[in-house]
Amino acid sequence: MLTKWLAILLVGWVLRHGYFASQLGTPEFTKDSWLDILDAVIFSTNLEFPYVRNPAYGFSSDGSPQKRDTWRVHAVYATFAIAFASAICSSIIYSALVPAPDDSAVAEKEVSDTLELDGNEGQMVMLYQELSDDEPGLLCADHGPRTARTGRALRQDLEGGTYLVRFTDGEEPETGIFPLHQLNPDFSKDESDTMDQPCCSGWLHLEELETGGDRLLLFERRAQVLDAFRSLLCLQLPFLVWRLYFNSFQLDFVAWGGTTMLIGKNALWGLLDIVKILSCGRPDAVLCRCRPVEYLQKATNSKLGQVWVGPSGLVAFMVEIAGSLRAKRLQHREMKIQQHIEWLITESQKTKNHQLYATRLQEVQRELVVIQEKKQFTFP
User: Where is the signal peptide (predicted)?
Assistant: First the structure.
């Protein structure tokens, strides 16, 4: 048993932190393959389940004699073998067929991504500087509990300190004048941009898999769709059905809890595979003015995407989940405070009342110190 888990950990380390072949493809395709392999190995323990094993030897699950019945053990073993082999072969075939990247295209892409990133980061502050008085200002919000309202704020005069806010949440009052200390900058995406999108778009566009863009990106999109078919038909759906079937015979509460979490994992990944197939690999497909691919990928990056190794891993999972949620909240709050500091510095440079902004800046910086201290004492 120990040798089996060590071998799986070694394969997982290779798939999570490297390529099968150096400088070929991208790590996004193979980084999650280790999760399918671990899931398949965990599923293989069902071969030891009395309801599966005993009938093959002529016994019922409680030990009484009966006619030999081998269909369960053969079906479970075939499901495991197909899932495990397909997960391994998927990464091997990908590495064998992926086209070599064009150096010039890669360099151009890296420069483009860098400029786009710098532009987005600068836009958070520079967007307000470049606007005139008759244009909507920086999107601001009060992040206090139960009082968060989003709107666009315009500085009243060169003295600073007060802002005219036009709220965008549709509630009353629609406008108001607020002092500096009641406003927090919000650099998240404006909700009005999402409302302008069509209710449903970007689905079943098969031409996305035939033409368009760089050869490597086109291959990557096709590979993701085909791998979604493999994951859905060979692993997620069969494992989900078998685990629901075996869960009806489960009386051990601890084992039932672990199986239930694996059922949730198979359901979530299966839904993500279906969305990838229907969107033809497009992450910007819209349904009811939201993007299901992005939301589901965020969910798969949660603790469900970290299958535990061995029986004691379930305990570690429960211990870490509370600390992880707290760490994410603190990290999000730290990012908001840092954005607030940048906004105050920029605003102080455009007004005459520098002391007012300096006082508020010191208050926000003290909040940042408190958040950073809390992060140091947060597990994990």
Answer: 1-21
